[in-house]
Specification:
The protein is built from ten helices and six strands, in the order ααβααααβαβααββαβ. It is of the alpha+beta class. Strand 4 and strand 5 form a beta hairpin. It starts with a helix and ends with a strand.
Length: about 260
């Protein structure tokens, strides 16, 4: 190695400038990360809507889409801030873990509500405590589509009994909630029940399990559950809402630190 290089390496000024350069590079990397906007792409947004539709059996409303967007932005902001605070970890669940950790630090443990607080929350959020719509029906089941379906339907409508295949959950479904029926028979079956006449045979309706002649006896609308029955749920919801309120305020403050962009194209 040439002597001039050795002398330069031993020079204190060389070490100083090298350290300064390293600090500058690290600072530039951190600044670049912080200046990158929070970006909700059109593809990710479409995926959020698709997942909601698959879970709920219907497309989201405009308000629900806005909530999906806000939740995504909130999690991204919380994730970045958690990284800045050194909460990141290296396992596959790092993102969820650090976000949950930060949420816990922000929200803490809310004060225990009294009975009046819980009643106020119950009254202010009635939709949280309504039962879901339900159906009461019975069916005659066939594993494969019957060739003489029209004739069989006429027999049922005339009050005759017809033999079908054995169904593992039986023939009677009294007051079964929409989500349970959807899980067993699929969303098209729900739509067919909503359109079917009451107290009359219809079908055969297809499902992933086969074909069903259905006698729909009642549609049960949602109803508000009594406070006493759902009190423990109300208390849990109250505590979660208190924590979420603190997190929402924190996220709003983070929006002053990070740019936020949403691609709705």
């Amino acid at each position: 190695m040439p002597n001039w290089i050795l002398k330069l390496a031993r020079d204190p000024l060389t070490a100083f400038f090298a350290a300064s350069g390293l600090i500058f590079v690290v600072y530039a990397i951190l600044e670049a990360r912080n200046s990158d906007p929070v970006y909700l792409s059109a593809d990710i947004r479409a995926g959020l809507i698709e997942n909601f539709t698959a879970l709920q059996g219907r497309p989201p409303t405009k308000e629900e889409i806005a909530n999906l967007e806000n939740d995504f932005i909130a999690e991204e902001l919380l994730f970045r801030d958690a990284l800045d605070q050194g909460l990141h970890m290296t396992n596959a669940k790092a993102r969820s873990l650090v976000i949950d950790d930060l949420r816990g630090q922000i929200g803490g443990r809310p004060d225990q509500p009294n009975e009046a607080d819980l009643l106020d929350f119950y009254v202010d959020h009635p939709n949280l405590y309504r039962t879901e719509p339900a159906f009461s029906f019975r069916h005659v089941y066939f594993q494969t589509e019957p060739e003489d379906a029209s004739a069989l339907l006429q027999q049922l409508q005339a009050g005759e009994d017809i033999p079908g295949d054995s169904y593992w959950q039986g023939a009677e479904f009294p007051n079964f909630g929409v989500s349970v029926v959807r899980g067993m028979f699929g969303q098209p079956f729900i739509e067919a029940l909503n359109a079917a006449p009451l107290n009359a045979w219809t079908g055969p309706l297809p499902s992933p399990r086969g074909w069903h002649f259905v006698f729909l006896s009642e549609r049960h609308p949602p109803s508000l559950a009594p406070f006493a029955r759902v009190r423990s749920q109300v208390e849990g919801d109250y505590m979660r809402a208190a924590v979420q309120g603190a997190v929402d305020e924190y996220v709003e403050a983070l929006k002053d630190t990070y740019d936020v962009e949403i691609d709705r194209d």
